[in-house]
């Protein structure tokens, strides 16, 4: 049976607190098996007989909205997609390995329109750099802390005109190792 990871937006942010056993139960209610969560930020690993990622995303979103009472955008990836994401080098090795630099990956349901890509890339600075490949936005943050970046997920969404959820590439690698 195919294995997947759902990256959920708006889980355990602000007043939207969800215990991981509740989140696992919601996924099991959908008929998914071998459901596990990884850290408390909305990363769910599961097995499903479905092979249509977009169908899984919609099914999860509808069920979580019903079960939690609010919208939870969901971005599903297969193990081979996660491997490709972690191996992808959107920036130079020097930039990726420089002390203080952090690579974030923004998950999308589809590739942004060309105009949105141009808009996002125009926002690049010495601190923040961006790259888009397939259904992911790569954000290289050259700041000591996330708050020093003067950029956010909300600004990213506004620039590309679509919802996303961000994860540190190290988190993605750790999830990938569990698959």
Describe the structure.
By secondary structure, the protein is of the alpha+beta class. It has 7 helices and 8 strands; from the N terminus they run E-H-E-E-H-E-H-H-E-H-E-E-H-E-H. The chain folds into 2 domains: 75 residues, SP0830-like domains (Alpha-Beta Plaits, 2-Layer Sandwich), CATH 3.30.70.1280; 96 residues, 2-Layer Sandwich (Alpha-Beta Plaits). The protein has a 4-stranded antiparallel sheet. A 4-stranded antiparallel sheet has the order 6-7-5-8. Strand 2 and strand 3 form a beta hairpin. The mean pLDDT is 94.
Key structural traits:
179 residues, alpha+beta, Alpha-Beta Plaits, four-stranded antiparallel beta sheet, 8 strands
List the helices and strands and how they pair.
Layout: E1 3-8, H1 20-29, E2 33-37, E3 43-47, H2 53-68, E4 74-77, H3 79-87, H4 93-97, E5 101-107, H5 114-121, E6 128-133, E7 136-142, H6 153-160, E8 165-168, H7 169-178
Antiparallel strand pairs: 1-3, 1-4, 2-3, 5-7, 5-8, 6-7
Helix pairs in contact: 3-7
């Amino acid at each position: 049976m195919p294995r997947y990871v759902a990256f959920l937006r708006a889980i355990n942010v602000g007043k939207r607190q969800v215990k991981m056993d509740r989140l696992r139960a919601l996924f099991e209610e959908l008929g998914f098996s071998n459901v596990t969560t990884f850290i408390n930020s909305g990363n769910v690993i599961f097995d499903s007989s479905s092979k249509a990622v977009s169908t899984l995303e919609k099914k999860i979103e509808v069920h979580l909205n019903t079960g939690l009472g609010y919208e939870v955008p969901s971005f599903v990836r297969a193990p081979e997609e996660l491997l490709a994401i972690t191996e992808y080098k959107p920036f130079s090795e020097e930039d990726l390995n420089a002390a203080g630099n952090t690579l974030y990956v923004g998950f999308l349901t589809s590739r942004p329109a060309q105009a949105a890509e141009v808009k996002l890339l125009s926002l690049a600075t010495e601190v923040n750099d961006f790259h888009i490949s397939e259904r992911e936005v790569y954000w290289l943050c050259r700041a000591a802390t996330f708050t020093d970046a003067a950029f956010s997920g909300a600004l990213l969404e506004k620039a590309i005109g679509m919802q996303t959820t961000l994860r540190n590439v190290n988190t993605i690698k750790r999830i990938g190792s569990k698959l």
